[in-house]
Amino acid sequence: MHINLIIPLCQKIKAKILFIDKDHLENVKTPAPHPNYAMIYLYRYYGQSSFKYNVFVNDTIKVRMKVATKDSIKVVKQGQYNIHTEDKEAEISFNVELGKSYFVQCGEEYNHLLAKPTIALKGKEIGQKEYDSFVEKN
Predict the structure, then answer these.
(1) Between the CA of residue 118 and those of 1, 43, 49, 68, what are the distances in Å?
(2) How far apart are the first and last CA of the chain?
(3) Given its phi and psi angles, is residue 79 left (phi above 0), alpha (psi -120 to 50 degrees) or beta?
(4) 8-54 tens-digit pLDDT
(5) What are phi and psi of 22, to 5 degrees?
(6) What integer pLDDT is reported at residue 5 of this predicted model?
(7) Of the four, 24, 72, 128, 132, which is 20 to 30 A from 122 by CA?
(8) pLDDT value at position 117?
(9) Are residues 77 and 37 in contact, defined by beta-carbon separation less than 8 angstroms?
(10) What is the CA radius of gyration of the chain?
(11) How far is CA 97 from the centre of its chain?
């Protein structure tokens, strides 16, 4: 079947496609939280490979985000944490409690063909599934 799509340039299309390799999911899991520290998991599993940006945690550069990137931060001091891009175009703040895991999804959105970074705090169940669903590319 052949489908012709005609889309005016002023329309916005947003899609997230996630492929989950079930064999891989059985072998890779994020560790269970420990009562003496918290874990912050940063990840980006989709997007344009040419669009890369730095992610900061409390104004310290942590990771260069590109497609299929994941990183984790072991936090030994609870309190307010701020995760943002260099120009603070995308930014979130949240309170970290020891013994918990936090999943931060980094991505991108487009406005008039220009890419803009996004950062979102995900729920533990969804965030862990997304984080564990792909292999990081070097």
Answers:
(1) 36, 11, 15, 15
(2) 38
(3) left
(4) 444 455 555 455 444 444 444 666 668 899 999 999 987 777 889 99
(5) -60, -30
(6) 45
(7) 24
(8) 92
(9) no
(10) 17
(11) 20
**58-96-116-61 Cα dihedral, nearest 10 degrees:** 30
- DSSP characters for 63-92? EEE-TTEEEEEEE-S-EEEEEEETTSSSEE
The single-letter code of the amino acid at 100 is K
Write out pLDDT tens, residues 85-133: 998 999 999 999 999 999 999 999 888 878 899 999 999 999 999 999 8
Copy the structure tokens of residue 67: 């497609």
Q: Give the C-alpha separation, 59 to 38, whole Å.
A: 19
- Backbone dihedral region for residue 42 (phi beyond 0: left; psi -120 to 50: alpha; all else: beta): beta
